[in-house]
Fold this protein.
Amino acid sequence: MLTTIEAEVDTDGSVRLLEPIKIKKKSRAILTLLDDENSNRKQMSEEEARLAEARFARWIGSAKSGNPCSADNEQIDEDLALEYGARHDDE
């Protein structure tokens, strides 16, 4: 089983895991170094984060399909099952 966890690697090569991991035996690992794009990003203040969340929240529920049951997961599952079961011989 593959497990992915986040870690930091210091310039001396030491590795620090950023989240806990439970393993039952000694394991091998492959380390992939990522570009640290986030280090150049400016941290948002609480006010900026609140405004960004408010801007995003304006879009929640803004799409209207015309079907009052379009968010009904059981109906969505039924529609998908019907569609996947269709043969579409007329295409």
Observations:
- Strands lie at 7-9, 15-17.
